[in-house]
């Protein structure tokens, strides 16, 4: 779900993601959208992420996450390393009024060159139903298609996760099928629903907005 090849300098980038040449492997941009900011996850986020993402209601439907600040620090360092390699990237979700990330969006390639990719997310329960997920998801999808160059995004959600599946449907994902007994947690196997979003469909959707990059 550490460190750059060369120093990353913030750039002022404005307009739609698809129109901006941006080498994301050397550092993710900061994206402002609605009432949230997406930025590269930082080591200083570790305590907040531990508090937000290890509660029972969040942990029930996501892949196991670290259970300590040190564990999240390791997760963040690995996310930076994988971004540098070009195999995945991870945005921290910072709602207005906060300095630390209250959730994550992570996207990883399913084939070399990021043609097809899988995305996942986890958000602290105090922000459920607030619009934070929807704004963040739109920005991450736009970035994945417009900057990274993906043509297909997949997501998998436990079939019994009504909130998560509803969120994916709301953002425009289409259900493709059921992956039977494909997710194991605490010794039990669960069905997952496979969702997809295609680049062409996304660009034709009427509510794609233009985020602001910094």
- What is the tally of helical segments? 6
Which ranges are low-confidence, i.e. pLDDT below 50, for 5 or more consecutive residues?
1-20
Largest sheet: 9 strands, mixed
Report strand order across the widest sheet: 7-8-6-5-4-3-2-1-9
| Mean model confidence by pLDDT | 86
Distance between the terminal alpha carbons, to the nearest Å?
A: 24 Å
SSE order, one letter for each helix or strand: EEHHHEEEHEHEEHE
**Helicity, in percent?**
25-40%
Overall 3D geometry?
A: globular
Query: What is the number of beta strands?
Result: 9
**Helix-and-strand structural type:** alpha+beta
The fraction of residues assigned to DSSP E strands is 25-35%
Give Rg in angstroms: 16 Å
Detailed description of the structure:
This protein is 29% helix and 29% strand. Mean pLDDT is 86; it is low at 1-20. β4 and β5 (116-123) form a beta hairpin. It is globular. α1 (46-53) packs across α3 (69-85). It contains 6 helices and 9 strands. A 9-stranded mixed β-sheet has the order 7-8-6-5-4-3-2-1-9, sandwiched between helices. With 214 residues, it is of the alpha+beta class.
What's this model, at a glance?
The protein is of the alpha+beta class and 214 residues long. It is built from 6 helices and 9 strands. Strands 7-8-6-5-4-3-2-1-9 form a 9-stranded mixed β-sheet, sandwiched between helices.
